[in-house]
Amino acid sequence: MKAMRPLFADPKTDFVFKKLFGTEEHKPLLMALLNGLLELDEAHRVVEVELLSPEQRPKVQELKYSIVDVKCTDARGTHYVVEMQVLNVEGFEKRVVYNVAKAYTGQLDAGQTYPDLDDVIGVTICDFELWPQREAPRVPMLSRWRMQEQHGGARGLGQLQFVFLELPKYDTSRPPLTVVEKWAYFFRETGNLRMVPEVLAEQPYKDALEAARVARFTDEEWDAYIRAGMALQDERGALSLAHKEGLHEGLRKGRQEGRQEGRQEGLRAIRAALDELLRQRGLTPGPQEQARLEGCEDLDTLQRWLVQALTATSATEALR
User: Fold this and answer.
1) Fewer CB under 10 Å: which end of the chain, C or N?
2) pLDDT at position 94, please?
3) Are residues 153 and 34 in the same domain?
């Protein structure tokens, strides 16, 4: 007996995100998404969309579960690079900066000179907290980043800008009210919906839901969707296994070294395992966290930190 299919496919998966926002058929959805997340007024709305060909898409290993194949141009010629990121991989922020910088410098390939270069804005939708809410200063669900003079605060050098939508920061205690909140709700909840909710029963969200309606999928598209979901679960499982192995190995080495060469050797082994686990999860300790880790002499505290590091969203949270 075949399992009952859901009403809508999850737009966070690679296949569905491409289908909704990376195809010629659904260009209006891409423009609506950008105009909403960028909060653009009428004079600066995205009016043209160009999709990168497969040959032009960045060949980066960490992009395995991301989609960075959409380039858009607004009324002033600004370019946009759009990405959906499900997993918080190591070096994620650096990769985002690299992709935007590459899109900026890549314009010279067309024979342009420096004065002709257009601004580039990276738009990234994250299914994880990049800047945890519990950390100060608090970064909102939708954040925009650009260079700023550090003494007086003047903004400049706006050729490269970055926009992030962190889906876990969506406020689930009330219905979505703003355009940004409705897009966040769409990405978070579509895969679980059993009907079209009233808050999404208007354009462009209604069209996005129709495009994600599973009943419209061909058998080949459904198989591709299932494969994409399985690949993502495999990757999540691999990361989880690596975290657990790091924990067990750290405890094993700590106990072994403690018996064989004394307490200090055991402490050093657990510190090393904890440091490696944090770095594998992309939670590289800062100077303060590193000093705290290296200065800890309590075995129970280190073991507690190892457990916390499995689910923490920052090095500070893991070492508290």
Assistant:
1) N
2) 87
3) yes
